[in-house]
Amino acid sequence: MGDWRGRALTQFPELRGVIEQESWSCHVFLSELWLLALEAHREDQPETLRRVYGFARWCFDQPGQFLPNAALISFYDHVFDDWDLRREVVGWLPPEVVARARALWEWRLPSERFAEVDRLLTAGDPPGENCSEHPL
Questions:
Q1: What does the pLDDT look like over 32-91, one tens digit per residue?
Q2: d(CA 62, CA 47)
Q3: Where is the DUF7674 domain (predicted)?
Q4: Residue 66: inside a domain, yes or no?
């Protein structure tokens, strides 16, 4: 079992079925992790959000390209898919992630939505106000 699987099993026993599917990559897991984040945002579950965003950040910070790219494509690329949560999401995005994911958001979002994301990221509280360095 890869390093990400062991760490994921420790942090997300509720996603054991996805994690233990050897034929599925971390991309599938990170997509499921984003669904967990959506639920946690909607139900105001800050501890779950800390675990989810902490794991995504851990992947983003790993050496090499595989896990960081997986985190960008399968997690961070989708953080503005539920438009109603955009204000809540911004506080969980570390500046280093914003710098790398910004082009993905610009490509995926309609121009007026991307402009609002840009405003949210530069106005008021800085991005990442809710996250800390790998709180796992």
A1: 999 999 999 999 999 999 999 999 999 999 999 999 999 999 999 999 999 999 999 999
A2: 23
A3: 9-97
A4: yes
